[in-house]
Amino acid sequence: MNRPAVPRRRFSGNRAFTLLEVVVAMLILAIGLLALIALQIRSIRSNTFSNCMTVASHFARNQVENLRVANWDDITDGTFTENVGDIDPETGAMRMTFTRQWHIETDAAGRMRKVRVTVSWNQDGRPHQMTVHTRIAKRE
Q1: What is the average pLDDT across 84-92?
Q2: Could you tell me the residue range of the domain that residue 92 belongs to?
């Protein structure tokens, strides 16, 4: 019995990748991965700064609320400074130290006080601060 002839494929040249093509592809992949790593580092730094801003905002608003509930005579003019810290809930270690300052001015009539609370901290060797302004009226 005769089998039908199977046509043979003819290869016109080499179909494999050259070493140069592989090196160029790896170089492009490496550049892309380095860009992703840089983006990840930037994201981590931004998240850390956002966490510090949240903690500073909490400390400032907490001080404003403490002044609001205080007796009118206990809210004195002047500038006060205290150091407060952000504590890691898992380890109990201090993560960051914040300085909270508040300045109070009484108006001429003695019925309204301007309050300015400033929270400052250092992160990555650079100083940062945020300020909250409010007014407290004298309760009758």
Answers
A1: 80
A2: 52-137
